[in-house]
Amino acid sequence: MDAGRDATREYLLESWLELNEAIDAHPELRKLLFDAVTGLPTTPLLFPRIRALLADRGEVSLLCLNVVRYSKIEEIYGWKVFDEVMRQVSQALENITGAYLRDSDIIAELMISGNSFVIVLSPPRNTLHVEPGVLADLTRRVESRVREDLETAMPASLFRKFGCYVGSATIKADANMRLERLVHEGLQHALDESSTREAVDATERKERLTEIIEKGEVRTLVHPVLKLDDLTVIGYEALSRGPEGGEFERPDKLFKVAYDADLVLRLERLCRRQAIRAAADLPAGRILFMNIEPEAIGDPELRDVMFTALLVDAAITPDRIVLEITERTAIIDFPSFRSTLEYLRALGFSVAVDDAGAGYGSLQVLAEVKPEWLKIDISLVRGIDTDEVRRQLMASMVTFASRMGVRLIAEGIETKAELATLLELGVGYGQGFLFTRPVPPFPDDADVMPPA
Fold first, then answer.
1. Strand order of the sheet with strand 116-120?
2. 7: pLDDT confidence band, cut at 50, 70 and 90?
3. Can you give the pLDDT at residue 8?
């Protein structure tokens, strides 16, 4: 046995030396075999190690860590943020090497620029094979520890947009199957197990969200909308938040789980009622922008709640409410959608389209909805003072809005330079952290002015 292991180690060493020599001779291979973001090798480089372990032990165990995105990370934050998350995961795996993982375990990425990591485990010290119970325990501990490291290293708002799930598999030698097929099936099994873990989590999240809805634990914050030329507050956007400090505090996670769990209408009704209650204290002369999910436009309760609650309970007229159509999902039935909007317009409500430039088929939404207000997504506003492409796109939107009689709101203004550029381009209205962050209703005007 010892002679066989020595031969295996010699073979493995020679294979890596030959590979390194090939990479030195052909540097372009590095781009194909190593991930540029994390610097980790990709799956093809694991084959010599797996082949050696199968020859030596007859089996090899591995873990797959899958990073799941709960919202449009790249669209909202840019691809650099997602790359940074992958670096953080890689660092978290390195941090637990020597504790949960051994120095001799090999960590790799499943593919270039992917979102899954592979860990080939070294053989156990005292037994020939990894016992299933030991492997399952290691899987849970690695998953838990990586999550803990990420929660510490990442901003809380960003951490909640990701999930990390670990699955495991044991590949057994089979002379009748090619090595590539064995590895593929093992990786697929581990990924499937990680998906099962995600499904269990999804069930638990649905239960937690159902409890939040039943208890009415959704809060309403507001974000001022200002007239940019004189910085007067013309209204507020009502923003729904889950329980403070919890997993569902942010609306993107709240509604992502709601869509997955088929709870959108129930959640939308709750958010609507809470916003209406807040509107009862809306300062005179101001309007309230209230988000409406496309799927909820056909909700029969929408008409009743709008009519009775706004006119009776909140003592506010529909002409002070702007229904802001979000684009988390595509609008499928435009004729029915338009019909409901026209009914609501007949009651006196105005309509805004949110996130123009970032959602599903925004141009078609503009053509079909014909909104009174158009909100330009933060992705087109951020850095507009230094980006000529964004400037030209915004200039085109200003021209369009002027010709169509639509009032334009720039979202996500964070710097004075962005504000100055938007004013130069003729954008009439805006909101963003330059003025204030979302706050409980309703702030004093003095509290929403940008710093001098």
1. 106-109, 116-120, 59-69, 162-172
2. very low
3. 39
Beta-sheet pairing, 429-430 with 219-227: antiparallel
Count up the domains in the chain and report the number.
2
CB 368 within 8 A of CB 336: no
Residue 211 domain flag: no
Nearest Cα residue to 106 out of 59, 55, 43, 163:
43
- Report pTM: 0.67
* φ and ψ of 34, to 5 deg: -125, 140
Among the candidates 206, 228, 247, a domain finishes at: 206
- Give yes or no: residues 187 and 224 share one domain: no
Same domain, 192 and 229: no
Q: Which of 186, 206, 226 is the last residue of a domain?
A: 206
Q: Phi first, then psi: give them for residue 261, nearest 5 degrees.
A: -100, 5
Contact (Cβ atoms closer than 8 angstroms) between residue 344 and residue 324:
no
Chain Cα centroid distance, residue 364: 24
Query: CA 43, CA 154: separation in Å to the nearest integer?
Result: 27
Task: Sort strands 232-241 and 373-376 into parallel, antiparallel or unpaired.
Answer: unpaired
Same domain? For 326 and 443 the reply is yes
Host domain of residue 276: 216-448
Is residue 125 located within the same domain as residue 253? no
pLDDT tens readout for residues 196-228: 988 888 888 899 999 999 999 999 999 999 999
pLDDT digits (tens, 9 = 90+) for 126-142: 666 788 888 999 999 99
